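DM from R.C. (forwarded with permission)

"hey, sorry to bug you on a friday — could you get me a structure for this? deadline for the figure draft is monday and I only need the backbone to look sensible"
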Amino acid sequence: MEPGVSTVSTPSRMKLFMALSRTPHGLLDMATPALAALFWLGAIPSLRVVMIGIITAFAGYTAVYALNDVVDYREDKRKIRECGGLQCLAGDPDAVYARHPLAQGMLSLREGIVWTLAWGALALFGAWILNPVCALIFILGCLAETVYCLMLRLSWTRTLVSGAVKSAGGLAAICAVAPKAPPLFLIGFFLWFFSWEIGGQNVPNDWSDLEEDVRMGAKTVPVRFGPERSARIVLGCLAGAVFMSLALFWLTPARLSPIYFVGSIPAALFLLLLPAWKLYGQKNSQNASALFNRASYYPLTMFIVILLSAVL
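My reply, with the result:
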């Protein structure tokens, strides 16, 4: 038995694979390509695109999240060994079933690699059917995720790589339904989710692991810049994300109703800005985790907002 592994209530093997791919969080992230396509079209795509898109998106997020644990296998094992286990805060969608099951010895590395490659192949095939550019974006996203993991003890700039990875799914979806979408809209969408990922996901998540990362010698934004500047980065990025979400209303050719503003502004306040402001006022791991958890529901909420503003 690996150090730090609990023998109590071990999840089923399927749940362990789902934990490897952080499936609960991946399902939330699948709203990103859906809202991206809907944002451009202002209508639900054809049934063919929807069916292939759902399968491809699920496979893609399943593969990329699993790839993170495969590449980080040795670092995660080292964290368990040197930090006495893995910290799991309440409500964390990344730890619903188990956290890092490969490093805990619940699954073998070989099983993790096979799982990752199988879902990756399916995602690549589906992306190619939709548009070869989508397949290229998926490949680049996987490479970027690998680079992100390998930069853990090299530079805090890995956070920027994470922002690019989280934007890839939405960009691929736009290319699937609009191969000739103008660069201005693509850049705007990229900046929207790039900023959301950094301010609402990556930095808060790293903040939750601050003590462990300091002991491990990791180079993250909270470790490099400290609580005060990290809180400012979070607020600045999320404010930028909200601004871009509003600016894109004027960049899309879709005829969305003003319901977009009625829904998107309260969603941004409740899920992003208010918890970010609380973190700025009380700079602790609990508030960072709370921001991460709330911000994880932002893509799904915005998908619903865009859908309502397109059909009503």
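R.C.: lifesaver. Confidence is low (pLDDT under 50) at residues 1-8.
me: no worries. DSSP finds 14 helices and no strands in the chain.
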